[in-house]
Structures are given as C-alpha cells and as structure tokens.
Design brief:
The protein is mostly beta strands. 6% of the residues lie in helices and 34% in strands. The protein has 3 helices and 31 strands.
C-alpha cells in the first residue's frame, strides 16, 4: 500500500479470513465491482482504494481508512459477515475490518498501533485479516513498513482527523507462494454489486400515454431504482428485496407522476433513472423443514441482549406460535404463526434446533444496501410478516416493539 507518507506491506491472512481477504483484494485490484458512494453508479474494473484517505487516526491506538467519502460513513455498496473466530488483538500492527456492529463489514479497515495497552476489548468483534510484518531483509516486505504505520499514527489531528490528508495512492496485491497463487477471489459468499437492466415502455391504452418502467431483479437480490431531474440530485423510486427462488419482476412503475421537478413543483420534459442490484450469497443452511423447530432471535446493543423473539413451529411445519421477550427476559407478547410459506428447501438438512439471526435492509442508508444482523428489534415487512430466508412466518398480530423506521424488509437467516 503506497501512501503520500510512504509504502508499507500488509501480509494478508486468507487462512483465517478468506472472505475478508477476497473482498479486500478484489476491491483493491478492481476485480470486485462496487457502487460509487458519491455518484451512485456501478464501478467495474476500477481499483477502490486509490485516492482514499486515512480519515481517522488515534495516537497509540490505530489508523483507519477505506471510506470512499472520507467520513467513516460509507463503503462499497454492500456489507458482509464477520470472520472473528480467531480475532485476538494480542499484538500491535494487526489489520482488521472497521464496522458498526456485527456483520457490517464493507471496505473500511484499521491498523493497530504500538501501545502500552493492547486493545483486548476488540477481541472477537472485528475481523483480523492481516498484519504489518517486520523487515525480513528480502523481497517480500517493504523495508520500514512498520515505521510508516508509526509515522501515520503520529500525525497532527483534530477530532481524530489528520490535519494534513494521509492519502492511499495505490494498492498492489502480490501473490507469494503456491497457495497464494491459487487463492480465488470469487466464491467466498460475498455480495455482488451488479447492473439492473430497465425497460421503458409507453402504455397507450388510456386517454393519455403513460410511461412505464420495468425491470427484473435476480433471486436473492436487492434491487434499487433512483431518479433525478438534473443528474445531480437523486431520489429513491423503488427498492425490492427478492428472497424467493425465481427472479422477481419489479412492479411496473408508472413514472408519469415522477416526471415533475422537485423545486419548483412544475412539469419537466426530462427525467433520468438509474438502477443497481446487490446479489446476496445463497443461504446454504436452511433446514429441510421447520417441523417442531424452535428458533430464537436476540437483539443486542454491544454484547448485551435487549430483546428477543422465539418462534415455535408445530409438528406439521405450517404454523405455530411466537413469544416476544424484553431485556429482563419477561414475555411481553405472545401470538400465533398462522401460516408458513416455503420458498425453497434443502433436503440434506435434518430437522432439529436452530438459531436465527434477525436482520433488515436499510433502504435509506448511504450504501446501496446494509444488512444489519442481530439487531434490537423484530422488524415487520410491509405485508405484516416476518420473513425467513426461504420461508415466511405470517403473524396476524403486530409485535409489541415499534418497527425500525425505513426498514420495510426483514430477513431471518437460519443456521446450525
């Protein structure tokens, strides 16, 4: 990694964090597509990190970079799950993913600095995917790598932001050894940002011709359509999460009502549209059925559980009951699962007890999609049902907790 303060080597760790290494290397080389946080357009074959800054530096703690806006608020347009089983910060110069909670990794990373007190409070919370090696006197490590990290950590800051920008000029991925040469950047259960084709037709059946926008979203994807009057200010037209097996047709949009300037409110003779989709990896741990299965979703703030919902499916697997509990584990509401709609099955998965992770997609987020896993609330979708990946458990009653704002789609992932 070459910066305006020097070049340093990161030794990546694909053995303990293959998904994260594939994501970092794919973004660095441009082999992994990403959504431009400033323009909203798809970037393919473009290195992600070139030109970004270390936007956060805390002396004696860490250097953080990888935000495309330089604010710590954005990423590549998607998020992916943790690899924290061996994440122990027992030495300085660890390279780890920055996040805003469990399973919220994107592009931001941090490098720990030498300190008298190692950050043990980070253990198990951040994926460690590499480290800054010592000089080896050979060709594999840039001489003085750790000195560059130390120099960055010593820059003058205001509110933890360097007064003089520390710029990442380029990132070069070098594969050293047979295993590194063979390491693939694909097939690591990472989300993929892709194009979403749109068709524009005109419905002339009425008294006035009406323009109709149409598109098809891939299975397991989030599709987003935005529109603009001037190619500068963009607004969300539609966002659809497709969790069922076949591709989902986006509801045809009569866009006549959107052909209107926002300020002043007058008709305009031009309108622009753009669309992308995030294709999520398939859920490979869905049970063959939900017969007699009991599942529990717990919401956390930090490591403290604050709410939970338990689903108890009946012997037929077509209904059951739920219990909603507060932070004191007291039941505050019970209800009935009146229907279980099954989208897909995996006959290799036995019946049994499963745990679930409750998440939702924030349709108003800076990224195109942010999957928030194990959140504090039971989030209801617009149809009034809690969605299981592969199944939907339909609740006739409203869950006591107020749904999270701007989170109309909820996904529960069943895993062993």
């Amino acid at each position: 990694m070459t910066t305006n303060m020097g070049t340093f080597t990161i030794q990546l760790d694909p053995e303990n964090a293959p998904r994260t290494v594939a994501n970092f290397a794919g973004l660095a080389t441009g082999e992994k597509a990403w959504r431009d946080a400033e323009t909203g357009v798809l970037r393919e074959g473009v290195p992600f990190y070139d030109g970004l800054i270390f936007h956060r530096v805390i002396a004696g703690f860490m250097n953080q970079g990888g935000c495309p806006l330089g604010t710590g608020t954005a990423g590549p347009g998607y998020r992916f799950i943790d690899e924290t089983e061996n994440a122990v910060f027992n030495q300085p110069y660890r390279v780890a993913m920055a996040n805003s909670g469990r399973n919220t990794n994107g592009s931001q990373f941090f490098i720990t600095a030498p300190t008298t007190s190692l950050p043990a409070h980070l253990n198990g919370l951040h994926t460690i995917f590499g480290f800054i090696p010592e000089d080896d006197g050979g060709n594999n490590v840039v001489t003085g790598s750790r000195a560059v990290i130390d120099a960055i950590n010593a820059v003058d800051t205001s509110d933890d932001r360097p007064l003089t920008p520390v710029v990442i000029e380029s990132v070069t991925i070098r594969r050293v050894g047979v295993e590194a040469e063979a390491f693939p950047l694909e097939h690591h259960d990472l989300p993929v940002v892709a194009k979403l084709a749109l068709d524009l037709t005109v419905d002339s059946s009425g008294s006035m011709p009406e323009p109709i926008l149409h598109g098809v979203i891939s299975s397991g994807s989030l599709g987003v359509i935005e529109y603009s009057d001037d190619l500068m200010n963009w607004r969300r037209l539609q966002a659809v999460l497709a969790i069922d097996a076949p591709p989902l047709t986006l509801a045809d949009q009569n866009i006549a009502g959107f052909l209107q300037a926002s300020n002043p409110p007058a008709r305009t003779d031009q309108q622009f549209f753009r669309a992308l989709q995030v294709i999520f990896p398939p859920a490979v741990t869905i049970p063959a059925s939900v017969r007699n299965i009991s599942v529990l979703a717990t919401g956390f703030i930090g490591d403290s559980p604050i709410h939970s919902v338990e689903l108890l499916f009946n012997a037929a697997g077509n209904g059951g009951s739920y219990a909603y509990r507060d932070a004191a584990d007291e039941i505050v509401q019970t209800g009935t699962i009146t229907e279980v709609v099954q989208f897909q099955t995996d006959a290799t998965r036995p019946d049994g007890n499963y745990r679930i992770q409750l998440g939702y997609v924030r349709l108003d987020s800076p990224d195109l999609s942010e999957i928030e896993i194990t959140q504090a609330y039971v989030v209801k979708d617009l149809a009034g049902s809690i969605q299981l990946t592969g199944r939907v458990a339909v609740f006739p009653d409203s869950v006591a907790q107020t749904p999270v704002a701007n989170a109309p789609a909820a996904t529960i992932i069943l895993t062993r």
